[in-house]
Design a protein that fits this description.
Radius of gyration: 36 Å
Shape: elongated
Strand content: under 5%
Number of helices: 5
Distance between the termini: 119 Å
Structural class: mainly alpha
Order of helices and strands: HHHHH
Number of strands: 0
Largest sheet: none
Amino acid sequence: MAALEAEVKAEAAVKNAAKDAALVRLREQKAKKDAERQALVTRQAAAVTRKPTVEDPPPKKRTKVSATDDLEGALELARKARGVKEELTRPRQGNEKSWMWSGGLSLVLGPLGWLYAGSFKEAIPASAAWLLLATIATKLPFMFVLMPAFLIAMVISGFAGIYYAVQYNRHGERTKLFGKDDDKALPPGRS
């Protein structure tokens, strides 16, 4: 019985020693983390309070925005919105293109709708690419996965169609959406 008691006490002593060693390790780890955290706080405080050096760019000055500046900006935005509304609601004249038809065709048919009012240099290649892409997509078994992308592209195409019609009505001719029209006539004597 005494041997059993001595064995139990020895096992308890070993367990207590292991517990004490684990507690010491945990305390050391906690102290290390606290020291790292304190060092980080010190570095951040030093970075915030340090004086600028010659290499540092000058701080950007904040301009105070007054209520009148906000009001002027809102009024300018309202004027632009009214101008857009007036342009879109005025009746068509002569050879002008309807922005509703252009937007609707472009929304339903994609870039094929651009042929109504858009630049042929952009509309024809985009239409060919659209038809090719649609043909390939219909052959894919997972076409339904691509539907959200096609729907987003069609909405963007609808806005482009509206833009083409408005530009056509402003300039009286088909204008490019991307880049400048560089196909103007060459100066005399050049071919």
